[in-house]
Write a structure and sequence with these properties.
By secondary structure, the protein is an alpha/beta fold. The chain has helices at residues 4-15, 29-37, 48-62, 74-88, 115-119, 135-147, 160-164, 186-198, 208-212, 216-226, 259-265, 318-329, 338-358, 368-378, 391-399, 420-430, 442-445, 451-457, 473-483, 497-504, 514-526, 543-552, and strands spanning 19-22, 41-44, 66-70, 93-99, 125-128, 154-159, 202-206, 230-232, 247-250, 268-272, 293-298, 312-315, 384-387, 408-409, 436-441, 463-468, 507-511, 531-536. It has 3 domains: 4-164, Thiamin diphosphate (ThDP)-binding fold, Pyr/PP domains (Rossmann fold, 3-Layer(aba) Sandwich); 186-346, TPP-binding domain (Rossmann fold, 3-Layer(aba) Sandwich), CATH 3.40.50; 359-552, Rossmann fold (3-Layer(aba) Sandwich). α21 links the parallel β17 (507-511) and β18.
């Protein structure tokens, strides 16, 4: 008779989950043995939040649910930051936690907290198994909840005795449900195309909904016909590469200063699978004029017009919508909005010229722009990126083009600094043989520093570039700008993070001068092992921080 652990493992196989991310604990011994016996790959890590971050990244990369498995009590509470991060990013994470035995329920049992209740505010679905017979049903239900509608995180708690007990008459497992292909009406498509055709200054903004719906080919064909300009953000970064014609990079005004005049002057905006959220100034006057006509396509109906009045809301799958638009747009390319495209190229070129001017700074400590100019010139072809937060990283997001589809992982709306390291683990595991660069600051690196050992143990040749300015750079700049006085709680030591990586068994070196950069980057990517470059940089206010400061000083009504 199978145990709960056996049913858990066989259910994962039926759901097509071929690997899990975990950190061992007493509540998990039975189930980990069963999962290993079933031939499922187990990626064991060093911190439970790192586990959930890596599983979240795996889900985003593959556009399918992924599973994390942690022990109960503090293992569960440690994991919650990763669960919340995945949920706000619309990522289908199945977060499973072990739990104390139910046999001692109601007493002062070790490591007992109400785990399922804790996750309710940050998941689409949460439950606790009370008998092994329920495990297949609960896993199948959790999978479908995570993967339906707007995707998101789900949670299951499974007590250790439920894993260990034999199951009589297990409930059937719901099979993975096909994604509904919600198509727009013909009338909606005709209205949208009419608005876009008549626009003089149209803009297309692609967000994560394009990625999750697998609409990259449809978007490319649509833009080839309509010749509209494209900006991308979140998981849509590099859905079409920034280097392609009429693609103008980040749809983020805090990173891409060409966005501010472009969006302010746009008369029609086609918003595909992107919320009008903080990143787009809630659609407000800091970024869009009141008369700008917005066409919003989103699978989740409550998002339509939630932040501001819109001209047209289409509750449908982005892929289905683009297919319908292509059917009605005609087979011949539209006349391009040439004056508008020339203006956008001018805005983009002027901004990149301003950024590149900083790269000519050869003083020590290094300016971040100098670092990224050298990196841009030496990157191996096909490099994938895992980006953290902080001033150093934001300079790179502004200067490095996104060109590899699915290879631009960010923190998400939770802004969970530190998560780039576990994200890079998933990114390299998912792309063996391809170069992966993780970009972080010295503050962010500290959160999951022990995961350097995970990189070495699995021989994952991620190149970690640490901008070491001896502090919490972004907050330091904000405090200086807002008070004009000394900073508080912003300073750190200039730690030799390269020596820490070497202690774990990887490679590393410290870089302090411009002339060292190119050779160091080449050595790192050629090393074939985890390699950390500890780059000594000066604190320098990034475009992102300038945007934040402008908002806090009241130069706009909304600050994202």
């Amino acid at each position: 008779m199978p145990t709960g652990a056996d049913l858990f493992a066989s259910s994962l196989v039926r759901l097509g989950i071929g690997q899990i991310f975990t950190l061992v604990g007493d509540h998990l011994n039975e189930v980990l043995l069963a999962v290993a016996k079933a031939g499922i790959r187990i990626i064991d890590m060093r911190h439970e939040s790192g586990v959930t971050h890596a599983a979240d990244a795996w889900a985003r990369i593959h556009r399918q649910p992924a599973l994390s498995l942690v022990t109960g009590g503090p293992g569960h509470t440690n994991s919650l930051t990763g669960v919340a991060t995945a949920h706000l990013a619309g990522s289908p994470l199945i977060a499973v936690s072990g739990a104390a035995s139910t046999a001692m329920g109601g007493r002062q049992v070790f490591q007992v907290v109400d785990q399922a209740a804790m996750t309710v505010p940050m998941t689409k679905y949460a439950a606790q198994a009370t008998t092994p017979a329920h495990i297949p049903y609960l896993l199948g239900r959790a999978y479908n909840e995570a993967n339906s509608g707007r995707k998101g995180a789900v949670h299951l708690s499974v007590p250790v005795d439920v894993f260990a007990a034999a199951a009589e008459a297990p409930l059937p497992m719901p099979e993975p449900a096909p994604r509904p292909f919600l198509a727009p009406s013909r009338r909606e498509v005709e209205q949208a195309l009419d608005l876009v055709r008549r626009a003089q200054r149209p803009v297309v903004i692609a967000g994560s909904g394009v990625w999750w719906s697998g609409a990259e080919r449809e978007l490319e064909r649509f833009l080839r016909v309509t010749r509209l300009p494209l900006f991308t953000v979140t998981m849509a970064r590099a859905i079409l590469p920034d280097t392609a014609r009429n693609v103008f990079g980040y749809a983020d005004p805090a990173i891409n200063k060409a966005v501010q005049p472009a969006f302010r002057e746009a008369d029609v905006v086609l918003l595909l699978g992107k919320r009008l959220d903080y990143r787009l100034a809630l659609g407000g006057p800091r970024l869009f004029r009141p008369e700008t006509r917005i066409i919003q396509v989103d699978l989740h109906a409550p998002e339509l017009g939630a932040a501001r009045p819109i001209a047209l809301g289409i509750c449908a799958d982005v892929k289905a919508t683009l297919e319908a638009m292509l059917d009605l747009a005609g087979g011949h390319p539209w006349p391009p909005p040439s004056p508008w495209l020339r203006q956008l190229r001018k805005y983009s070129s002027e901004y990149q010229t301003r950024l590149n001017a900083f790269a000519g700074d050869t003083a020590a400590p290094l300016h971040p722009a100098t670092v990224y100019a050298a990196l841009r010139d030496t990157l191996p072809k096909g490099t994938l990126f895992s980006w953290d937060g902080g001033d150093f990283c934001h300079w790179g997001r502004a200067m490095i083009p996104a060109v590899e589809r699915g290879g631009w992982l960010r923190l998400g709306p939770m802004g969970t600094i530190g998560s780039a390291l576990p994200n890079s683990i998933a990114l390299q595991l998912a792309n063996p043989g391809r170069p992966v660069a993780m970009i972080t600051g010295d503050g962010s690196l500290g959160f999951y520093l022990a995961e350097l050992e995970t990189l070495v143990r699995y021989n994952l040749p991620v190149v970690i570039i640490v901008g070491n300015d001896g502090g919490w750079g972004l907050e330091r700049e904000l405090q200086r700008a807002l008070t004009g006085g000394p900073t508080v709680a912003c300073e750190l030591q200039h730690t030799r993070y390269d020596l820490i990586m070497q202690g774990f068994g990887g490679g590393g070196e410290t870089v302090e001068r411009p002339g060292q950069l190119a050779a160091a980057f080449r050595r790192a990517f050629a090393s074939g092992k985890p390699y950390l470059l500890n780059v000594i940089v000066r604190g320098s206010r990034s475009p992102f921080t300038e945007w934040q400061i402008a908002g806090k000083r009241g130069q706009a009504t909304v600050s994202p």
